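Request:
You are asked to prepare a plain-text protein record giving the amino acid sequence and the backbone structure tokens, at your earliest convenience.
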Amino acid sequence: MRCRRCREPAVVEVRRHNAAFCRDCFLHHVREQVRRAIDAYDMFGPKDRVLVAVSGGKDSLALWDILLDLGYRASGLYLGLGIGGYSARSAEVVRRFARERREALEAVGGELVEVDLAREHGFDVPTAGRRGSRSTCAICGLSKRYVFNRAALERGYDVVATGHNLDDEAATLLGNVLRWQTGYIARQAPVLPAREGMVKKVKPLYRLSERETAAYSFLRGIDYVVEECPLVAGNTQLRYKEALNRLEAASPGTKAQFLLGFLERGAALFRAEDDAELRPCEACGQPTTARFCAFCRARAQILGERLGTPADQGEAAGGSSDREVARELAEEVLPVEIYAAEQAAR
């Protein structure tokens, strides 16, 4: 098997491209796919400060590595979720990556920002899952998006970048199409524009499969946390990924055709103006469609705290629905899981 570009012995085969690559040409291929994604959606420029949400997994660390290699002003943000040994291992992996890339970070003025959910907001994800009214995945997603946005605003970053890859996005799209969740379908895109109080959010890895990001991390010597989050067991999203994997094995390129075809030809059919009026949350100042943002309402419920006046207590106790959370953040929050939870509650 020979490299398609240089004819040297190949080390990675990418079946959907009907191609194989040597180490250097594969790394070039991955970087070019990311560069192409950034350019196609005008995600950010060389002067923009980019905050990469890093979890310790292969995708987010690969993304941070690629952006640094391309010369972007990319910093990392790690959010400690308090999930026992899993979070401890994830934090150490991220810190080690930052130490190993110190020179590259210094060259672009980058840094590693760490936020501990329990220290900053009084609860961790396992506690929230036990005490809250929504699924663990939903409260985790809500907490991440709240912290990412707030950290970016407070530290002067222009863009938040996440490591969602082709497999992630195709699985989310499949789940939304099967349930005809048109609101989520309308918002599924590699870029979510900035709004008042909300920084721009981008997904530069949407053209790369999970297998490609794993191969990139291996060839670059990036150490990452291999195991899945222990709280994700039974996640419907994983079943959609498995179904797509079977289709991909039988017909290479299925995932890319499904997602990229939707973005190129189908997305415009679902686009709608988001006319929801945002205003500052009366508790934290972050944008919301209600008096208090979904995060502050969830936090008050989890901690058993009062929020606002006595008249507000019913709102805080009832919390906000997962669907409301997703709309407020203008982003998908595992919609297939939300649907399943709603059906089970009926």
